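debug: dumping io for the single-chain case to check the tokenizer round-trip. Nothing else runs in this session.
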Amino acid sequence: MRLNYILADLGIGLKRNLSMTIAVVVTIWVSLSLFGSALLAREQVDLMKGNWYDKIQISVFLCTKDSGGRGCSGTEVTTEQKNRIKQVIESSPDTAPEGVFGETKKEAFDQFKKLYKDSPIVSTVTEDQMQESFRVKLKDPQRYQNLVSAVSGLPGVDTVQDLRQYLDPLFKALNGLQFGALIAAGLLLIAALMQISNTIRLAAYARRREIGIMRLVGASNFYIQLPFLLEAVLAALIGAVLACGTLWVGVYFVVMQRAQETFRVWQWVGASETFQATLIMVVVGLVLAVVPTFLTTRKYLKV
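debug: decoded output
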């Protein structure tokens, strides 16, 4: 196999199809950039869920004389009712071992003063107005609805709160955006696949006579396909490198420089997740180059 001939043939192919090659590079660049962004979006949603779902507890607030909950009757929760509520919580199969913590009115008032220490509202609230509560940790943070249903409406229970009811719509919206990005990336990847196929088809058709002569003198299929394969791989690698660079720049300026500094409460994707995404992007780019090249050039190998 003569390397100089293959490289010369590669150069001729790139010159003949320069505009098409540039179009392939740009299409792969854009499609892989969006594909990588979708991969990172999925990782970000998983990190946000893991960061919050394991820490959020169900809060069961007990009745006071001013409570208007379904389980309240205008009086303070009794000791018997508290014991019954705690028994129901502890007997639930979803409650983690040693996962029930009681909060007294004093503890709730101290926490309230700590949260609103600089607000004038502190002077208008008394300890007696605070609500006792049970804080419940679950075995599986995703399974909270069964326990909420079991506790809601029990005598002495005012309200049951779980931040998941507020976070779930956020995560659903993020998952929707991620799904939309994946669809758009998939369509662009299909466009890149078709673009590469058309480029290789035009190049093979322009050199069909040369291919026929090489086939007649005994050149192997792989030897004939190699210049076309190198042409497609080169375009795919350039597009993949540009896409990876775009992803790294975006993560650095948008996530590391802005999001991490502004929203410190969240855990954000970093270098590790970005590196994994870029590896996948390069592999996908190479598959986009190799598969259509082999399939497209097969019909021109028959003499």
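debug: round-trip ok. The chain is about 65% helix and 10% strand.
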